[in-house]
Specification:
The protein is of the alpha+beta class and about 425 residues long. The protein is about 30% helix and about 30% strand. It has 14 helices and 22 strands. The strands form five sheets. Strands 10, 11, 14, 15, 16, 17, 18, 21 and 22 form a nine-stranded antiparallel beta sheet that branches. The chain has a five-stranded parallel beta sheet with strand order 3-2-1-4-5. α1 (about 15-20) packs parallel to α11 (about 300-305). The model has no long low-confidence stretch (mean pLDDT about 95).
Length: about 425
Amino acid sequence: MEQVNVLLIGSGGREHALAWAIAKSPLLKNFYIAPGNPGTSSLGENVQLDLDDFDDILAFAEDNEIDLVVVGPEQPLVDGITDYLTDYGINVFGPSKAAAMLEGSKSFAKSIMQKYNIPTAGYEVFDRHEISKLESYLQEQVTYPVVLKADGLAAGKGVFICDNYHEASEHIDRIMNDVNLSAAASVIVVEEFMQGEEVSVFAFCDGNTARYFMHAQDHKRIGEGDTGLNTGGMGAYAPAPVVDSKGIQHIMDTIINPMVDAMSTEETPYIGMLYCGLMMTTQGPKVVEFNCRFGDPECQVMMPALKSDLLELMLMTVNGKLEYANIDVHPGFFCSVVMASQGYPEEYEKGFEISGLDLLDEENEVFFSGVKSTEDGTLVTSGGRVLNVIGRGETLKEAIARAYEGVSKIKFDNAYFRKDIGVKGLRYFS
């Protein structure tokens, strides 16, 4: 393959991890990250583009002879950036607007799963103008606990588990009246509550072929023991022992390959990274949700684990050549602990200096999520999730210990992190 110019879209920990992996490729010629963060500035050139203005992105891509655009976050994909750029002959790693509806609309994803017999929870769909009908359904017809979901994108904060009608009614009010949630809630999905352990399975897809990449386990709740409010993710580890190689093959055969085939049949071929959130129930794996990109914080553990050339895999994906791809990962385990600002996912302060990064050794990687650089080069906190500290080890226990050893060296005011990331996986080895 010839060397290529790459533009990566995004600014968080996921994009820092992707940039770190792409930058290793001998196939990379020129590398730009828009807007990037202080961590990506040493891997390529950070550029300021308006991510809501596809014309702006197109003009940059044409001026800089970009061969591949890699889209990190879900919003531009759901808004149709892939369609826009490919119309002008620019390759994009990420699904079309129609295919990205697997994440952009939970009701759409459920309807596809139902049509093609892909295992998922039972559900009902209600328009936001049918609140009285929804309330009657929740009062008279459901078995609690039940799950309420805003249909659209809600940054991981549009899902509520309700133990009774009173809780369900409160969450409906919240969905309807919260400015950030109401935009995602033109439709509300009511789902059967599934018992089991969650796992995230990732596969490269080129429209016809799906190739398993890795599986990981996220920790979505803010508090230890999976308590408190949902967040964008407080840490992850991979591979997650809740699923073995036989289980992965079953998931590929019953969920991921059928979904890729379904999208092809629907004339909306899926091209990019398919992220399947699963519940391992007593009846087997069932889909919680599909996402149309790398996970965050799962990406931060998967990139250090990847032995193959990420850029080469992305190029094979967009060119429909995945059947010839080999995806190799390093042995052992990888654990990521998110250091956050106290108060997240609600109100928090920012602007605190970050120290100790220079004390980390080769056993750790750090990916920035909410970090900015001041005029004099000082790194300060600028978000709820500040950074991701990754540890690797031959065993899961070693990977967890090394991640927390890294965390212990990094300091900033009002730092908060969970102390139990990966612990639930240890019981598989006792």
